[in-house]
Q: What sequence folds into this?
């Protein structure tokens, strides 16, 4: 099934209610009184369609969550890096606080970046939707920043 059909079926194009579409060809079945798709002849089971819509909406929510978490991860890592450097340069007390900030943001950034690997638990069509270079680069940046921040804070690397 094409992703456009899944999105229409799940009602994600700004619609409040999902519209019934054929799960085979994507034909709009709104107002149809028969249990057969007039376009492709496939039997249409409303309960199966509602189940599919529910599962699709859950998967799309997982995709959005993964994208948001990975993006948040590298941002936290970048902010943590800047704050840590500023604190470490200010004074001896700042050095201790900077290391704590570095370790904390390092862990956070790394584990949020690891959300990328959750995408492998999604169905193929969902993985294809988020398997973009920017998503992959954001995930690796978050994990790399996390490791660097942790090492800098834990072992006192400048």
A:
């Amino acid at each position: 099934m094409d992703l456009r059909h899944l999105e229409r079926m799940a009602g994600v194009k700004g619609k409040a209610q999902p519209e019934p579409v054929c799960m085979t060809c994507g034909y709009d079945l709104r107002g149809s009184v028969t249990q057969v798709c007039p376009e492709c002849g496939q039997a249409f089971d409303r309960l199966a369609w509602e189940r599919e819509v529910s599962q699709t909406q859950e998967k799309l929510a997982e995709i959005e969550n993964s994208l948001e978490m990975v993006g948040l991860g590298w941002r936290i890592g970048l902010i943590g890096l800047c704050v840590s450097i500023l604190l470490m340069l200010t004074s001896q007390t700042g050095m201790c606080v900077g290391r704590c900030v570095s370790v904390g943001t390092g862990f956070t950034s790394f584990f949020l970046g690891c959300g990328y690997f959750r995408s492998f638990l999604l169905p193929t069509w969902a993985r294809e939707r988020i398997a973009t270079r920017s998503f992959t680069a954001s995930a690796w940046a978050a994990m790399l920043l996390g490791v660097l921040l942790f090492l800098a804070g834990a072992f006192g690397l400048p």
In short: The helical segments are 3-10, 46-90, 92-113, 124-130, 133-155. The CA atoms of residues 20 and 134 lie 33 Å apart. The radius of gyration is 23 Å. Confidence is low (pLDDT under 50) at residues 11-16.
